[in-house]
User: Fold these one by one.
Assistant:
Number 1:
Amino acid sequence: MATRTGILFLLFALAGCAAAPRPQAGASACALGEASYACQVERYHAVSAP
């Protein structure tokens, strides 16, 4: 009985995690400074992307 209850709680926890909003891919490199090398690469890739 205790094993079934544990499995049930585990399934509910996993179902709750699946419905949670996903975090963003990450902060933009340009948030720290527009003149940084990482920001320039990010801008280049954004313009070059199809």
Number 2:
Amino acid sequence: MPMDFQLKSPSYAADAGTKTEIGRRSLLLALAAGATAAAAMKGSKAEAQTQEDPELLTLADALPVLERDYLEALATRQDIVDRFAPTWPRAPQQIYRYGNQCTEERGVDGLAFAHPEDSKSGVPGALISVGKPEHFEADIRYNKERIAHIMKTKSKRGLKFHETWVARSEEALPLAKTYWADLEKAKSASGIDDANGRLAAVREALHAHVDQIMRFQEKTMQGLVIKAQAMTAWGKVEPFQRAFNIQANDWADAMAATVMRQAQLSA
């Protein structure tokens, strides 16, 4: 059962480290109690269903469908990544640029490419940034304007510098046009944008549903188990997305409160 979603949550306050530790202990307690509750409920499910809040039971019934939709969307996206990654367009070095109208070069999976690791220091290389055609067109105009100005002066200082950059950008411009056109064709052929949109939508729906369950005040031990099931479903989401779930600590706290509440009721 993946449970690291709240442990990777980013910190937004000075006491975030302490709160994360509290959340970890709360979560472990909640999981142990959830397993105990699940065992205790065997043979008494019908009775529990008559006692638990119908609204929470309705939320529980809808959870598997949302989880299935998410996993199907994730599998669809991964299939696209696996099939298209080997032939995904790569930018030629001539269009590596940083500045306006430049952006990171990314693969079909959305991850940015980086320069090779430094062989001496072992430090990972910086992310590769590539220029769009508009960048090189603007660079050509600017340097030609500077050349025209310099030609009116006696010293001709800086002339060689601007001539060099005109030549570089004129060489890069057609390469940039080809690269960005090929990239758009690859995106269209792969369907990755639609797959990403679908995945984001079902992930958000699952997140909202889990959040609704975790904030619900249950009446019985069955409610505790439902919350454990919700946390398990969210644990199947990509680690990166779980890491930025700012509700993670709230969910852990809510689960801990549920455990304590049900322990007092059954005492």
Number 3:
Amino acid sequence: MQTDQTMNYSNATSSERRLWGVSMIVAPLLFFVSTFYWERGEYTVVGGTLLVVATAFWIPALLGLFSLLKDKLPNYASWGLLIAICGCISGSNFGMRGIYANVFGISKETLLREAAIHSVSFNITLFMSGPLFPLSLLVLGINFLRKKVVPGWVGYLICLGAIAFPASRISRIELIAHIADALLLIPIAYIGWQLLAKRYVADQSTLAVKT
């Protein structure tokens, strides 16, 4: 029996679907693993590296996720994707900050002091652009629910993960970070797995996921 949700990937090539599927699993998985390498709430060399590599997979993952809405919300699927990618790049910058801070022994106090001096650059690349990533996922989850393009629980978990994500990064509490990352990993990896498992059947212009 088919659900009333349809995941529209009919215009994508098989190579695109495989790339998107792998990326939807790898990107949130690396996010999840990276916080296990926090030290005092900060990214280490290993954690920062995982975060940077995760960003490379997040971009094609986002391409696949936003493609689900390109027919029903074409303007949002295009511009929303751009905003989400900007947030991803900021995440990579946070990872690089962790790497350099550890390698060169830059204290958090020194970093914040210098950030205040170069506030425009740091706000553009880190502090103001950083929230765009969870905000983009929150709006994405809401639109998934509105347009019913994925099972309801997927949309709800993405929304919960998007809310918990900034809370974990602000509080720097590892347990909250693990929970937030798991809330994003489960639903996004589920969509990716559906792509890789080829559990879709052609239905004219859409591919409907079987249950």
Number 4:
Amino acid sequence: MAEKSTFSTLRWRTAQWLERRWWRNYLKGKSPEEYLADKRAYWARTLAELDWQPVAGRRVIDAGCGPAGIFIHLHDKEVVSALDPLLDKYETDLPVFNRADYPSVNFLHQPLEASLPEGETFDAIYCFNAINHVADWGLALDALTALAAPGAKMIMTSDVHRHGWLMPIFKALPGDALHPQQHDARAYREALEQRGWVVERELVLRTEAIFEYRGWVCTADFSRRP
């Protein structure tokens, strides 16, 4: 029961409502076909930038997939599960998302923090721009780690604070209501390493005034846990 109450914090529920509104506004007037084509091209560019190659038949999860996550690029290349707490809302709200368009994808309508049944694990994990949307950051990172088979690979990306003095202000107000979690790059590295992830590459994918959008490419080596 405590786990469910964590997921239902006011800040997180507000962020989820704002996320739905953001997508509706962002996609207003866009051609779904053109948007999805552009998004698939974006995913291909991003994987190339991260020096990451899909592996045919590999079991993977798109954790925090949104309505047009990397599953739209990988569904015919890898064996994909895709997880998000707003999947039902996206299918109702948005013309770009219809589960029937991806019959090979196993869609999971649940928060990132929730455990999968029977301890299911994956050989690769994709977590793009999702980990700062969760209610409980530590629990979400634990859940992601529990999804990793021995030696699994993971890509994680997130906005991180560039200026230390702004981060406590954004945590308190919040200054970024779409993202309940506010952390810097060092916090991400330390949290990953504490859970047995070896960070092989860390890249700045985009720089803005307050945030950097960073990516981490990691390998699970749980013998290294402190």
